[in-house]
Amino acid sequence: MTIMTRPEDAPLAFQAAWNRHDMEALRTLFHDDATFVNRFGRYVRGIDAIVEMHEAIHATVYSDSTLDNALIDVIPIGADAAVVHFWSRLAAGPAHPAGPHAVDTLILAVLTRQAGAWRIKALENVTLTNPRTGETVLRDGV
To answer: Dihedral of the CA atoms 112, 118, 122, 128 (nearest 10)?
Structure first.
């Protein structure tokens, strides 16, 4: 079980669960009634729906993918709530129909603390794209 003791633990905890393709570790990062919006705008509510959405992609197109997350900022809302922004670079492998490639996203997560542990209440993932062409772009041009 992954326990986040600070909001700024979220990016690396999410990265670790993803990179191990460990859906039970992913489950422990979220509150039972959490919401998740993936990079394609799909909205799900509830930990079971979040895990189910990720199980499907981790068994197929992202089975050999990795994430590299980097904290941007933590904005406290109070003693037991915070907004966390972080960069996430997805490195898709040969299992993806488009082959190996990278995608950068910006993640906004709202975390709350209950019983001493921080968990994600809501997460939204936005793909970086060129607004004129719709093409995916990487934040550092690589």
So the answer is: 120
- Asked whether 98 and 92 are in contact (CB, 8 A), the reply is yes
DSSP labels, 17-83 = HHHHT-HHHHHHTEEEEEEEE-TT--EEESHHHHHHHHHHHHTTTTTT-EEEEEEEEEEEEETTEEE
Cα 96 from Cα 49, distance rounded (Å)? 22
User: Using one digit for the tens of pLDDT, what is the confidence trace for 6-52?
Assistant: 999 999 999 999 999 999 999 999 999 999 999 999 999 999 999 99
Residue from 128, 129, 138 nearest 101 by CA: 138
